[in-house]
Amino acid sequence: MKKNLMIRFMKLKTMMPLVLCAALFAGCANDDDDNGRGRGYDGPDGTDTYGYVRDTDGNPVAGVVVSDGYTCVETDQTGLYGFERNAAARFVTYSLPAEFEVAVSTLTGLPEFHASLREAVCRYDFTLKRLPQAEKKFTLFCIGDPQVNDMDHVYRFKQETVADIADYASKSAEPVYAITLGDLVNNKWDLIPNMVFAMQAAKVGMPVFQTVGNHDHDYNMKDDASALRTYETYCGPTNYSFNRGDVHIVSMDNVQHRLEASDSYDGGLSAAQFEWLKQDLSFVPKEKMVIFCVHIPFRGGSASGGSNMNTDKYYQEVLDLLSEYASAAIMSAHTHSNINYIHTVNGKQIYEHVTGTTCGAWWKSTVCTEGTPNGYGVYSVDGATITDWIYKPVKYDESFQVRLYRGTDKFKGGDKSYSFAKSAKGQIVANVWNADPAWTVNVYENGALSGQMTSYSDKDAWTVAYHVGRLGGSSSYDKKTDHLFYYTLKDPAATVRVEAVDRFGRKYYQDQFTDPASDPGSYPAM
Q1: E strand intervals along 385-464
Q2: Phi–psi pair at 229, nearest 5 degrees
Q3: 464-476 burial string, b = 16+ CB within 10 Å, else e?
Q4: Which of 85, 166, 276, 504 is 20 to 30 A from 374, alpha carbon to alpha carbon?
Q5: pLDDT tens digits, residue range 115-160?
Q6: pLDDT at 8 over 70
Q7: How far is residue 355's CA from residue 501's CA, in Å, rounded to a whole number?
Q8: The pTM is what?
Q9: Which string of DSSP letters, residue by residue, matches 15-31?
């Protein structure tokens, strides 16, 4: 009997994604008989797709930007919009105004701001619920590369990442929102529904928007539309925007996949995507902030894409657009390392946060390829400015921002030994993963300030010894980083304390040197 029940349960579990898929394809469009093209079409002249945006009291909502991913239009005073849909369009979306709540799908638990376009349906209405009060402050969580490869990884993501985010978010005094930065899966597209279930708003404690990554494209397909079909079925459109407070947030697919192999992609936007972005931003007042979310970093340009990159595609043009606003930031991931990069464009600084990944080094350990702990970015927004941010390590307190090494230590990995370049007697090395040029890192010897550490580029020997030496990882696991700091002690036998001071004046301390016999394969007992 128990065996029969188990078989039935396994069949039901297998069918759940299929049932959800069918429900999602059914869509939420208004498809009454009088909505067919040519059958009492009631939209504006020169259009073939239209609808009304109203609030929950039935009042029209004017000024809402609605799009098919190619053309952007605004609702009029009656809440009416209309456009001629592009033949390649798959969704109609609205850019959620700041004064309305994020609607959450009862099917997926993800934000719902769109409807699937259907050939015989012309009318798509949307209903928005007003916030009780305006939001000027909010907190944005950025989640890079979950990149699961099997159900064990999905389990770790739920038990480690989601649990940590939900706990941290529960302590926020401000409204909280999250967005992923690509690569939900590692070419295992059948796991996308499992990841969607893991990120339901009720489980994470906030609505989680999505950004598509290179490994979310099914490269076995013949064209981009087919390659994105599974992702879009569960996660929705790949180019869209929404507003919170005085911030306009854009998420775009900047993976130009050639569908020849897993790594046959370029970074950048197509001409059609750039045109959509220009139209979308044309409705955003210049005094607002724009947060631009993509998977592949702009930092490094073409070098930051796949192995077959040729040229940038509209990167500079996008930066030029962003520089027109009161402030702007880029959120990206992809590199499996944490990098803070500042673009200077038209005399304005645009900060790019290349976020360390939740999977770290592809779930092989508890750290990324350059020693950053598995984690996520947390950004405090006030008005049109990001006023504060932190990289939150999973399963650690937020105060854990420094790992400390003795330069003379050797780290065993397989039959090899790994060490830091700064290995002279008395030299110490600190990995300060969220450091940027505004940070300072001080050294105290026997309780007295001794001096300031100097940043340099090197590999984290402790991390590489494990990933490459012990596990046999490829060059992807063997990366240098610029967030290492070194210092030569005046007294090599002194009691040492390192103090890292971030750009906001917060201080983080570390006085424990990493044990050369330890490894990042699992979390320490807590």
Answers
A1: 385-393, 403-406, 411-413, 416-418, 427-431, 440-445, 448-452, 454-459
A2: -60, -50
A3: bbbbbbbbebeee
A4: 504
A5: 999 999 999 999 999 999 989 999 999 999 999 999 999 999 999 9
A6: no
A7: 20
A8: 0.92
A9: HHHHHHHHHHHH-----
